[in-house]
Design goal:
mainly alpha, Rossmann fold
Amino acid sequence: MSKAALTSFIRGLSGELGPSGITVNLVQPGTTNTDANPADGEAAPFQQSLTSLGRYAEPREIANAVVFLASPAASMITGSILTADGGATA
């Protein structure tokens, strides 16, 4: 339910802010190696098995997706969802 709400929210904002040249996008990260969810934790083997790449994302990989969307290279991308989950939803 919350993902659907976020999707509607960013698409609505995109329509409102687009005429001002402001882009609005959503990054949906998958399992990411953090202190709260370490790649060597107890649940790691199972979580890694759910991804096509067979591993956790590193925080810098998710940050790279955000940086891309904030860059001029993504100037025509708005109202979109970028899923960075290593293929977990593929």
